[in-house]
Design a protein that fits this description.
With about 260 residues, chain A is an alpha/beta fold. Chain A has helices at about 25-30, 35-40, 70-80, 90-95, 105-115, 145-155, 170-175, 200, 220-230, 235-240, and strands at about 10-15, 45, 60-65, 85-90, 135-140. Chain A has 2 domains: about 1-155, Rossmann fold (3-Layer(aba) Sandwich), CATH 3.40.50; about 170-240, no CATH class. The longest helix of chain B is centred in the N-terminal third of the chain and has 32 residues, at about 90-120. Classes of the chains: A alpha/beta (about 260), B alpha+beta (about 425). Bound molecules: iron/sulfur cluster (3 copies) and fe (ii) ion (FE2). Fe (ii) ion binds near residues 45, 373, 374 and 425 of chain B.
Chain lengths: ~260, ~425
Amino acid sequence: MRYLHIDSPRPRIAVFDFTDCEGCELQLANKEETLVPFLNAVEIVNFREIATGAGEDYEIAFVEGAISRSDEVERLKAIRGKARLLVALGSCACFGGVNRMKNAYDLGAANAEIYGRTPKETLPVRSVKEVVPVDLEIPGCPVSKDEVERIVRHLVLDVPFAFHAYPVCVECKQRFTTCLMEKGQLCLGPIVRAGCEAPCPAGGLGCWGCRGPAEAPNLEEFFALARERGFTDQEINERMAFFGGFEGVVVGGTR
Amino acid sequence: MNVDLNIRIHPLTRVEGHGDLLVRVVNGQLQEVHWDVVETPRFFEVMLKGKHYTSAAILTARICGICSIGHALASVRATERAFGVEIPETAAKLRLLAKHGETLQSHVLHLLFLAAPDFLGLPSVLPLLESSPSTVTLAARLKGVANRLCEVVAGRATHPVSIQVGGMAVFPDRRELASLKAELAGAVKDLAAVAELFKGFEMPAFSRETEFVSLKGEGSYPWIGGALLSSDGVERAEGDYLRMTNEFVDERNTSKLCRLSRESFAVGALARWNNNHRFLHPAARAAAEELGLGPDCHNPFKNNLAQLVESIHVVHESIALIEDLLAEPESVQTMAEVSPREGEGVGAVEVPRGILYHHYDYDGEGRVVRANCIIPTTQNNLNIQHDLKRLALDLAADGADDARMERLCSMLIRAYDPCISCSVH
Ligand code: SF4
Ligand code: SF4
Ligand code: SF4
Ligand SMILES: [Fe+2]
């Protein structure tokens, strides 16, 4: 069985960025101990941030960033037309990322505040799949290079990839981090999809949910637990809204 | 000379973000030259409104994937100054160490992955995988040490987690620190090899009188906080940053533009070098001399050399910082008490591309009422335009062809290491 119709042993990949910080594509140049084999496993035909010369004959397009301007919509559609496999790279591409919080503000007023009498074009933020069909989504702000490498390996070897269904808590406990909820911090670890290896709790910061919900998260139980520990619905909702991955999920009446 | 040139690059490659270069020459006369920043705006300052102080640094780190540690540092500093928080001394050392890791990571990425291909006549670093794999391995190793330094100290290299209002949330693993110290000794040797490589590169002979703005060194090469200084003699307090930047909006760019005493000014490694070189580590100053980087340098291409010299400085200073930190007792405090209060604060930090300002106004609950961020590339964009104009005039007068004009103009923009999405935010 060919996985998602890719038949090249050394896939021709392209990387494109839209409304974002380019932190995810930068991860592709990180993880230095495996950088050289990684670059040898793929053929990079278009990657503006690191290479001059834009090839159009790519099979896999990694698309980073949210979509928030009409020229981006056009550019994305053209990429979709050429790529056989379109991968949304990072939380901006998957959910809109932190940019999605912009949608809670009036865009006219936002423009006037920043640009005064010279407004710049801006649209409500959308994720990539809200604009074109997406074949695979890799969440994370930023993505984990380990996970991206695993996925690329699966693509090269033609084997389907499955994301962890379980929540961040599992990985957090595996690395013996003292639970931050026990220390009085709010942490979304119980309801967020694992795969990042829980770097935030280990560094003393509760999970902010950048990877979006785990599979069938037990939301009610989590909300009850968080309330019991004294966290307000507003805090929990603000936390869930931060990276856009919990769109439509709210605790209590209003957000 | 009857040269006609029409160069349109949309967008320029090997830089962070989207910017367009346009040069038009008719009959040997320069008609137009533009550097247009067309990146999509993200409205971070609007999204900050109403946010709790604990989330400001997490949000603003996402302004930039390359200098997220710098943004987090400017953010927590602005908040701490608004709340009147003094962070523990150990936290200040840890922050500087994380900052050095980021400076090294960013400078190495720029020097070896983005700038070096121009000097080698290559489209990217990728062909070196076959022709000179040891150069790629060297670059990867240096970037690796730098990223590990950030990870160990700040919890993650891109979008740090331990840099929090009040200090640093955790003291790093001591064994990791000790092994980093050994790796940094290796980086000293690797940087010597990079310096050898760059000695062989010909920096274009170009120079334009420029005003340079940076933090003012007082006893040491400055990175986090302090007075602001311009080479034209302007000196202001950190909180007075608005009068040091004078941001304005124009029609062509989604980035704002800045000026101070003249038509434009520059920030970044070359500005820091010009204003503060006497505070650099002796090994860095010796390297500068060997590389041909002298004081009062107005050749923007030499920003590359200033980055290399700074890389050497931060590696030496990091080794000393780690020695200091390893001598701290197990019980050492890295977080101060924080109680939010109404008021405003400014944080100025020297990030890889120049001085960065965050400014927040808080209500009594510790929620942001108003925010302002001024990014180094925003400050450099106008200076890039003025440099480009001079360079294009010189080249047109010299009868340069398309290829030479395009190559040198692109190299000039790249020399500033622009972080374009950051400059728009
Ligand atoms: S997901 Fe995060 S790291 Fe990736 S591009 Fe968006 S803001 Fe940057
Ligand atoms: S710190 Fe967070 S992720 Fe870790 S165990 Fe506790 S709740 Fe789960
Ligand atoms: S711990 Fe949470 S916020 Fe941190 S990387 Fe993992 S999913 Fe993202
Ligand atoms: Fe700004």
